[in-house]
Amino acid sequence: MTTRLICAAAAALLPALVVHAADPPQVREGLWEIHSKSTENPGSKTTEIIYRLCRDHAYDKAALEMAKSIKGCTSAIKSLGGAKFSADSQCTIEGTQIKSIGTASYQGDTAMHSETRTTYTPGFNGKTDEVMVQEQKFVGACPAGMQAGDQMTPEGKILHRGQ
User: Fold this and answer.
1) pLDDT digits (tens, 9 = 90+) for 48-105
2) DSSP labels for 62-82?
3) Which of 99, 104, 138, 156 has its CA 20 to 30 A from that of 77?
């Protein structure tokens, strides 16, 4: 069940990650603040998370490769003009069909806004659909002791998830 949950979560995030393959502007290396808000149905359950992520180009590429390697998934990417991109993905994981449509808009190399709409058929742990909106912005250099992939909680705790 844990594997299924991880795969479903990764598939829901796939459009936001895959847009990197369509050659959008490369983002700045360093510390990024990510504000993520998701709404799940039924019930309109809303979850908000704010964290900081240390990233570099190698980390971004590895995250993209991981998302693209999820078995049972396909995706299509297109440029919508300017610095806006979209991706559609479809996955079948342990009998659940997951369809996602995502868009990402870049503001230079220091900010990005993305929206991803995902449906689960049949529902996944009671969830039938989800909308996730993320605002990401560059905030500066990664603090000493953080490497690409590491996350910082709002309380300042560093979670070492890098290489």
Assistant:
1) 999 999 999 998 888 878 877 788 888 887 778 888 989 899 999 888 999 999 999 9
2) HHHHHHHT-TTEEEEEEEEET
3) 138
Structure tokens at 126: 């009671």
CA torsion 86-140-50-122 (nearest 10°) is 30
| Tokens 């900081």 found at | 52
- CA-to-CA separations, 79 to 11, 61, 63, in angstroms, rounded: 20, 19, 20
- Residue 59 · residue 148 · CB < 8 Å: yes
Residue owning tokens 């990197």: 20
HSE (CB half, 13 Å, CA atoms) of 60? Answer: 18
The end-to-end CA distance of the chain, in Å, is: 26
Q: Are 5 and 91 in contact (CB under 8 A)?
A: no
Phi–psi pair at 10, nearest 5 degrees: -65, -40
